[in-house]
Amino acid sequence: MNGLIALLGSGEYLPVMDEVDKFILANCNASGRVPRVVCLPTAAGREGEHSWGRWMRMGDEHFARLGADVKSLPVIDRVSADEAAHVSEVESANLIYFSGGDPNYLYQTMNGSRVWDAAQEAFARGASYAGCSAGAMILAKSMPDFRRAGFGTLPAFGIVSAAFIVPHFDAIPVFRQPLVFALQRQLTDGEFILGIDEETALIGSPGREWRVHGRKTVSVISRDRKMVYSVGEEVKFM
To answer: How many Å apart are CA 164 and CA 161, to the nearest integer?
Structure first.
């Protein structure tokens, strides 16, 4: 990816993330034009139209309020992820935004799809990627399989060098904390987990600077230590 990547812990399309999204829009290689934003509710595709339709409306309203040319697309399954009209919209976007839901469903729907291929072409020319929760998780090397108490893993795209990306990190309930410890024990030398707090974003790109935006912190966890970075700080991957 040549454009920015924004990994959000929560808060997609909410006013609390306005400053984060304004920063992304200002740095999405729109070349002085009104940024073209495509919002994809794919991760909520199995939840029914009441859910993915709500994400579409929220995305449209949010980015229109911020002055972007925005279009939410009903890419909710593999059929719609291969539709030519959707591919065309994604190809020409300056920012492609994936909202939250089921990360494994999102990965399985996108992997090998024409929409994902179009997104890769857009990223190669400098378009930005924003992923909240599930949309962030799919960029790690793997995803935790919480159905197996954190001991199993699921495939991901491996675009970000983190072994796992864990959103909502500060809001993980006490009964699920052992799952994070289980993931940590799976790490080998040089591997790390990214924990992104709610209302917080980690923004950067592979091989370049990463910095914390939003309201809280980002944690970088290796097998034997944890580093916590506050808003404005550059994050050093281990």
So the answer is: 9
Which pLDDT tens digit goes with each residue over 23-78? 999 999 999 999 999 999 999 999 999 999 999 999 999 999 999 999 999 999 99
Sheet with 95-98, edge to edge strand ranges:
69-72, 36-40, 95-98, 128-132, 5-8, 200-204, 211-214
**CA distance linking residue 183 with residue 145, whole number of Å:** 10
| pTM of the shown model | 0.96
Which domain, by its residues, includes 225?
A: 5-230
For residue range 201-220, what is the model confidence (pLDDT) as tens digits?
Answer: 999 998 889 999 999 999 99
Please give the Cα distance from 24 to 186 (Å, whole number): 33
Here the CATH number for the domain that contains residue 218 is: 3.40.50.880
Task: Note whether residue 238 is domain-resident.
Answer: no
Instruction: Please check whether residue 236 lies inside any domain of the structure.
Output: no
